Structure formats: C-alpha cells, structure tokens
Amino acid sequence: MNSSSATLALAAHLAVLSSISFGGFPTVLPDVHDFAVAKGWVSDHEFANFFAVSQVMPGPNMILMMSFLGLKVAGIPGAIASALATFGPPCAMYYLSYRLWDRFRNMPWQRIVRRGLAPLTIGLVIAGGYVMARSAAVGWQSVAITAAAVVLMLGTRLNPLWILIAGGVLGGLGLL
Amino acid sequence: MLEARKSSSSGDRVPLSALFIGFLRVSLSGFGGGLVWARRVVVEQRRWMDEQEFAETLTLCQLMPGPNIVGITVCVGAKLRGALGAISAVAGFILVPWTVGLTIGGIVLRSAEIAVLQSVLSGLSASAAGLLIGTGLRLLMPHRSRRTALLFAGLAFAGMAFTRLPLPIVLLALAPVSIAVAGLESARAQ
C-alpha cells in the first residue's frame, strides 16, 4: 500500500470512529488498535508508546495519539489527516447540534438516550484501558503497575499526572 | 476579574483572538481534567457563559460523539461569534499544543530504541492504561445499583476487549437495546 492510499484508509477509518465516539475517543482505542496492527502499520509495542507519549502531553491527547499513528503511516501529511479525521466530524456535529439545541433541549427522549448510552460508553472506556494494558504489558511488573494505577485512581484524590510519572520512573529504574 | 465584566452582557463582540487564547489556556492547563479548566475559564474568568448555560451545554455535548471538551469549545465559540468563533476556539484549543506535542513526541518516539527511554515509555503506558481503567470504574460507580446498566457496561466491555469486532458493529448491536431498556425503566418508574 503506498503512503497516500494508506493515509486515506487511516483517515477514513478514524473519521467513521470519531463520528460514533460517544463518551470520548478512548472508547474507540480497541478498534483503532486492532485496525492498525492488522494492517501491519504498528506493533503492539509502538501503539502503547503512542499512548504513553500522548498522555504526558497537555492538550488534546487523543488527537495527538492518532497523529502519531498517522506520522508513522505516512509522515507529516498522515499526521495532519489523522488529526482532522479525529476532531473534524465531531466538531461539525457539535456545531450543528448547538444550532438545533433549542428545538430538542426539553425533549424527554434525550435523557433516556443518555441513560442508555452511558453504560455502553463506560464499558468501552474500560475496554480501552484493558486493551492498552495488554499492549503495554511486558511482564508481571507492568501488570502490577497498571493494577496499582487503578487502585490509586479509585482510592485517592491524587493528581493523575503523579501516577503517570511514578509509572515512568519505575520503568526508567529498570523494573520492567 | 474585571476584564470580564462587559463581554457577556453588552453587545460588545468578543474578539476572535480572545477565543483563541482562552481555549489555548484551557488546552495547556488540561492535564487529565480538561473540563475543570474549561469551566474555570468560560464561567469564572471570562464569563462567556453562566453556570446554568455551561451545564446545559455539557449535557448537549455528552449526547454527541467526540471529546466533550472539544464540544464545549465549539459551543462557546459558536455562541459568541458563530461559525468563525467556533473555528477560532477550536484552533486555539488544538493548533499550538498539537504542533508542539507532535514535534516533541515525534522525536521521543523516534528515539524509542534507546533502552532507558523504552523502559520509561513502558512504565508510562502501563500506568496510563491503569488510569483509563480507573476512570471507567469511577464513572460506573453512580450506576452500580442499576443491574441493567452493569449488564450493558459488561457487554460493551467484553465486545471490544475479547472479540475482534469493529466498534460500529458493537454499538449498533447494543445501543438500541440499551436505550430501549432505559426507556422501559423510566416508563415503569412514572
């Protein structure tokens, strides 16, 4: 596959996913992972690296992560195409729905739709974390770090950034 | 903050550059909890929206696909200056952090064969994955007494984590049923 058709395939795939990313972009991570690995574009390990680097940057992490994938597939044009495909469709939908908001703000069905979608998006977020943990795992030590991060996230009000950094430091000390 | 006193009430037009800079700040402050900062800038500092309007906008954004924080950005920009405002706000949110992030990240990823760096990245991705799982579990807490919600969360999790099904298939299969059940439950509750 040459780089422009690869760019097109990636951007088209991301555009479809971003259009259905209810609950945010982490919900589509498992799908992107399977797609990119099946195409032979990235290894499990590289995909985990994209995730790691994007999470320690401020700003739009998931757009950045998809751009790292685009960068790997087709250089700078691939990175730009991936970014546009990731935020373009949702932005267009947000804009249109904001314009139409007055027409359906008080309709009872929107509460029901939200109630119905919420558990699905939550399950998908957890699946996103699970798939990333699987990609990142290089042994029981990394599984232990993931488990510790879950516990700290649930049990404390610690700033998530510190939990991230602690994971990076433990890795850097050669514990993985 | 005195600088904010006029912008929302009077007919003064908020400059596009103010939207760009306002959301650049939100973006750069948004380690982890972007929504906290969006509220702080939009409601408290600039007074582009009041609490009520911000909450309603968030509700709308939660109904739509995509990152909620980008949705807030689009809606605030659209409210103040229409389509151009939305574009300026989104550009402020994305352009600078994206360019910087792609440059630094590109260099880091290209050097990933360095053993120490790879070890750091492995540790980071393991803990980042844990944070994502933890976030999901926290979101699940308010639903824990609703058995059907737990069931559908479990099905969505299993559908993506253990099968190789594409997301559109999983959503198409589960969303109509889950919404229908939510509808039945609310009808029964009335």
Please summarize what this structure is.
With 176 residues, chain A is an all-alpha fold. Chain A is built from 7 helices and no strands. In chain A, helix 3 packs across helix 4 (61-104).
What would you say this structure looks like, in words?
The complex is a heterodimer of chains A (176) and B (190). Chain A is built from seven helices and no strands. Chain A is mainly alpha-helical and 176 residues long. Chain A has helices at residues 3-19, 29-38, 44-55, 61-104, 109-136, 140-155, 160-175. With 190 residues, chain B is mostly helical. Chain B is flat and about 50 Å long. Chain B contains seven helices and no strands. Residues 1-10 of chain B have low confidence and may be disordered.
Give the strand content of chain A. Answer: under 5%
Q: How many β-strand runs of chain A?
A: 0
Number of domains of chain B: 3
What multimeric state do the chains show?
A: heterodimer
Low-confidence stretches of chain B: 1-10
Structural class of chain B: mainly alpha
What general form of chain A does the structure show? globular
- Please bin the fraction of helical residues of chain A: over 70%
Order of helices and strands of chain A: HHHHHHH
Q: State the end-to-end CA separation of chain A.
A: 35 Å
Overall pLDDT confidence of chain B: 88
List the keywords.
heterodimer; A: 176 residues; mainly alpha; 0% strand; globular; B: 190 residues; 7 helices
Structural topology:
The complex is a heterodimer of chains A (176) and B (190).
Chain A: H1 3-19, H2 29-38, H3 44-55, H4 61-104, H5 109-136, H6 140-155, H7 160-175
Helix pairs in contact in A: 1-4, 3-4, 3-5, 6-7
Chain B: H1 16-29, H2 34-45, H3 51-63, H4 68-110, H5 115-140, H6 147-161, H7 167-189
Helix pairs in contact in B: 1-2, 1-4, 2-4, 3-4, 6-7
